[in-house]
Design a protein that fits this description.
The structure holds two protein chains of two kinds.
Chain A lengths: L5 E10 L2 E11 L4 E6 L5 H9 L8 E6 L2 E2 L5 H7 L1 E4 L11 H6 L7 H10 L4 H4 L10 H15 L3 E5 L7 H16 L3 E6 L10 E6 L2 E6 L1 H8 L4 H7 L9 H9 L11
Parallel strand pairs in A: 3-8, 3-9, 6-7, 7-8
Antiparallel strand pairs in A: 1-2, 1-4, 4-5, 9-10
Chain B lengths: L2 E2 L12 H14 L14 E5 L2 E6 L4 E8 L2 E8 L9 E6 L4 E12 L4 E9 L5 E12 L4 E9 L6 E11 L4 E10 L4 E10 L4 E10 L4 E10 L5 E10 L4 E10 L5 E10 L4 E10 L5 E9 L3 H8 L5 H13 L1
Parallel strand pairs in B: 2-6, 5-7, 6-8, 7-9, 8-10, 9-11, 10-12, 11-13, 12-14, 13-15, 14-16, 15-17, 16-18, 17-19, 18-20
Antiparallel strand pairs in B: 1-4, 2-3, 4-5
Helix pairs in contact in B: 2-3
The chains are: A alpha/beta, B mainly beta.
Chain lengths: 267, 328
């Protein structure tokens, strides 16, 4: 297998005295669709913000490597210029910025045909949407499609898509799956964050996140099987000491709750 | 002397007219106007340079009466009852010399059931010490609709004082939508003061946009009184200040009748050593009325900023784009 494009090593994050991520390990390879599956509040979005370098998400320990570069200390702009971008779960609204302009922002050279192609890729007719502002007049689903179009137009090396499927109708899910595969076939690695296991089918690899740590990385179907338990064994085992999973009694509890059936973590 | 605008283009009426017209059209362009539109016979146009009415072109349904004052012009602008004016009425006010005072005493009468849009451009491109005072009375008749968009350009010296004052009455079922923009070049000192009375089922929406820098001063006083049943009011203020500029936004919304609904929405972005203030005042005198307000004063929204940074823009580019979009 190729060298990972993104390598997260023992990454921990503490915000305002609360442990959000604990010793996260994750590898995403070039052109791969890697799904990060987890319940609400499991730390998926926090990991996304940390990868992008957002304010307040500097690591407590561990590091992030991207194409061999240690991202520690790099700004969001510098990370973006290395080829990382993020589609936010709740994208910001911009008064007065036309959608066409917004979609073109990440392109090396603004190209109207490519902007139109990006909008068409998310089923937004450019003639109707191109000059509308990316503001509050868009519905949540429309705004998310614009966000995906902007990422698609940017053609990044790594696209972190934070719950692109939330607030989207059933037909929209298929559009997203097609778009994700299209981006991957164009050479973009995708880290697809979701709590909807219907999206597993689009992925090459899946990681399961629970209570701020990665429980499992492996085949999407296995991840889906365990996710069907809603991580209950893990959460019950963790009890009130979620960050001491190295303790023997916690390990024993994990095993007794059926977590022994889980495949071992990758690597 | 009353200049009745039965005449069409006043070209060639007196020596120097053509040069003055060319200068004011150039200024008009700098304020964002399209000089070509002033030449169209189907477009009602009023052009005033200092205290000189250079052009007053009427069309069916739109009448102008204008008379020069010592330091400005007194004008009456009438849209006849029931008239539906398809093309925006163009108004152009300006002072070309570096110094001067222009006072516009304006009466706008939008007759019952009439509909019209006005595009006003005020330009003072060479101003070093110019004062522009506007005293307007605007009457929007029953079920009438007026959309009034005003754009200013004050040059780069910061030597302009612009003092627009308007008393507006919107009768039952009427609509008054206005946007005031001063976002290119320096502002100098701007003190906008609008008082609006809104009747039953009528609507008043007021948007003010300004971008101040150096030692510019921006003051916006807006009072909207929702006096009629189910009257609607909205004020939107978008101001950015940087360097040592100051802005003060004072908006008052009164809910005085059953079912009246009002909202005040203010965003001010502050950079460098600039200062922004916002004082919304809500007064409700009827237990079935409701007035709300929201304000965001300070830096640009962090999430908006980070979203643009994640596309590869640097912080300066991203902040500029957000501000330009906001005041667009």
């Amino acid at each position: 297998m190729s060298q990972p494009l993104l390598l997260v090593e023992d990454f921990s994050l503490n915000r305002n005295g609360r442990q959000i991520l604990s010793r996260v390990n994750l590898a995403v390879h070039p052109g791969q669709v890697h799904i990060l599956l987890g319940l609400n509040g499991s730390g998926k979005s926090s990991l996304a913000f940390a990868l992008m370098g957002c304010e307040g998400y500097a690591p407590e320990s561990g590091r992030i490597l991207f194409a061999g570069h240690d991202l520690t200390g790099l700004s969001i702009t510098e990370r973006a210029r290395l080829g990382i971008t993020l589609a936010w779960q709740e994208p910001a609204r911009f008064e007065g910025i036309p959608i066409g302009k917004y979609v073109s922002l990440g392109m090396k050279e603004a190209d109207q045909d490519k902007v139109s192609a990006a909008l068409e890729a998310v089923a937004m007719p450019p003639k109707y949407y191109g000059f509308r502002p990316a503001d509050r007049t868009l519905s949540g689903g429309e705004r998310k499609r614009v966000e995906l179009a902007a990422v698609f137009a940017m053609h990044p090396r790594l696209a972190i898509l934070d719950e692109p499927d939330s607030g989207i109708d059933v037909l929209g899910l298929n559009d997203i799956a097609v778009l994700v595969r299209r981006m991957a076939s164009g050479g973009t690695a995708i880290l697809l964050i979701t709590h909807r296991d219907e999206m597993v089918g689009v992925a090459d690899v899946a990681s399961l996140m629970c209570a701020g740590t990665i429980l499992f990385t492996g085949s999407p179907s296995e991840a889906r099987r365990y996710y069907a338990t809603r991580c209950t064994p893990h959460l019950e085992a963790l009890g009130s000491q979620p960050w001491d999973s190295s303790l023997p009694e916690v390990r024993q509890a994990l095993a007794s709750n059926g977590a022994e059936r889980l495949p071992r973590k990758e690597g | 002397m009353t200049v009745v605008a039965e005449r069409k283009h006043a070209a060639g009426q007196r020596p120097g007219w053509a040069d003055e017209m060319a200068a004011i059209l150039d200024a008009y362009k700098q304020a964002g106007g399209d000089p070509q539109s002033l030449q169209l016979p189907e477009v009602a146009t009023l052009v005033i340079s200092a205290n000189d009415v250079l052009m007053a072109h009427e069309i069916p349904g739109v009448r102008f009466d204008a008379e020069p004052l010592e330091q400005g012009v007194k004008a009456r602008i009438l849209v006849e009852a029931g008239a539906k004016i398809e093309r925006p009425v163009h108004l152009c006010f300006g002072v070309i010399p570096a110094e001067g005072v222009q006072e516009i005493l304006a009466e706008y009468e939008i007759g019952e059931g009439a509909e019209a849009q006005f595009l006003a451009h005020c330009s003072f491109p060479n101003a070093v010490k110019v004062q522009h005072r506007m005293q307007a009375h605007i009457h929007v008749g029953k079920n009438a609709s007026l959309t009034y968009t005003e754009e200013h350009f004050h040059g780069q010296s910061g030597g302009v004082e612009v003092l627009p004052r308007a008393e507006v009455r919107v009768e039952d079922g009427g609509r008054f939508i206005t946007t005031f923009s001063l976002t290119r070049g320096r502002i100098g000192r701007m003190e906008l003061d609008y008082q609006v009375e809104v009747g039953a089922g009528a609507v008043a929406e007021m948007t003010t946009k300004a971008y101040g820098y150096a030692d510019d001063r921006v003051t916006v006083n807006e009072v909207v009184r929702l006096n009629g049943e189910k009257a609607r009011g909205l004020t939107r203020t978008r101001v950015a200040v940087r360097d040592r500029a100051l802005s003060g936004i004072f908006t008052t919304m009164e809910g005085n009748a059953p079912g009246a609904r009002g909202h005040m929405d203010c965003t001010e972005v502050v950079r460098d050593s600039a200062e922004a203030r916002n004082t919304p005042l809500v007064i409700v005198r009827d237990d079935q009325a409701q007035v709300t307000h929201e304000a965001a004063i300070g830096s640009v929204n962090r999430k908006e900023l980070e979203t643009l940074l994640a596309r590869g823009l640097d912080e300066e580019e991203a902040v500029d784009l957000i501000i330009r979009g906001m005041i667009r």
